[in-house]
Amino acid sequence: MKITDVKMEKFYIEMTEPFKVAFAEVNSSVSILIKIETDEGVCGYGEAAPFAPVTGETADGCLEMLQMFRTGLIGMNPLDIEKVHVMMDSVTHGNGSAKCAVDIALHDIVGKVMGQPLYRVLGGYQNEVQNDVTIGIGEPEKMAAAAEEYVKKQGYRILKIKVGICVEEDLRALSLIRQAVGENVRLRVDANQGYSFSQAVYALEGMKKLGIEAVEQCLPDWDLDGAAELKRKTSGIQLMLDESIHTVKDAARACKQGAADIFNIKLMKCGGLYRGGQIATLAENFGITCMVGCMLETKIAITAGLSLVAARKYITEADCDSFLYYKDADNGMPGGFIRNGDIFRLLERPGLGLDISF
Description:
The protein has helices at about 50-55, 60-75, 80-90, 95-115, 120, 140-150, 165-180, 195-210, 225-235, 250-255, 265-270, 275-285, 300-310; strands spanning about 5-20, 25-40, 45-50, 130, 135, 160, 185-190, 215, 240, 260-265, 290, 315-320, 335-340, 345. By secondary structure, the protein is α/β, with parallel strands linked by helices. The chain has two domains: about 5-115, Enolase-like, domain 1 (2-Layer Sandwich), CATH 3.30.390; about 120-345, Alpha-Beta Barrel (TIM Barrel). Strands 5-6-7-8-9-10-11-12 form an eight-stranded parallel beta sheet. A three-stranded antiparallel beta sheet has the order 1-2-3. Strand 11 (about 290), helix 13 (about 300-310) and strand 12 form a beta-alpha-beta unit.
């Protein structure tokens, strides 16, 4: 089997309302969808969802990079996934979301060739995932109202709350959310690099009193020393790294420094499912659990992320919810999974299991 062509196009995503985090506010996004075609008529779909504040990429930059990858991909066997990653890494440093698009498409092809769903191709631990839902930064009362809606009307039992602009407002919002949803709902927090070391120490003490189970990326992405020191000073609450973990080497450094209890693996940061699986294996050997998160992605990358969570026992958490904030949650791509409250069940269809006309 050989790759005969790689097609790509921009895909525009409109959100129902602006979404605010510590370093940005967004109300729309652009992904790059790709289709890898083969000489045996099997094709695979992938996605790049660049987000400049995190991956340093833009949609136009991704298109240019994918054109470069296309030259190398033509004639390669799509089942040689490691060989393709070696080729892409020889072309460019970083550019995780562009590499991710190729990686997901190759895994989609593998699933179709095997006649197996992607979660089974990746390990097959289970086919169901409990997903969280994220609450962006806003007025504390509105955040609490949103939390109550998700829990009492939509059936979510895990909430992820964005913080990181003002510690006192963060703690007030979290207190109101806890009052609104009760003691049995799991709460985790994402500061998106918004705190200084002293602010983080103060915030963590307040969050522990509210029963927050985990806090993500308190400090700037470059400050692994600070993250390790924060972990040494903190007990009773788990610390997670996200923006600090792009590559397998980043994860290795964090493991050696004892800088986290949990890693947030994002396919767009690390370059796709192959590298994401490597990070998960490394973390497991250091006793660190993992969550798979997402950028503003279509159902292509969301299904891929959920499949990785389902496939691996040591990936215990899922934060693959961004599609819920779009005007069209399916993005015109039915399939992949079905949802019952916060339980997402992957379909027993080959590859991604999505119906895509591209």
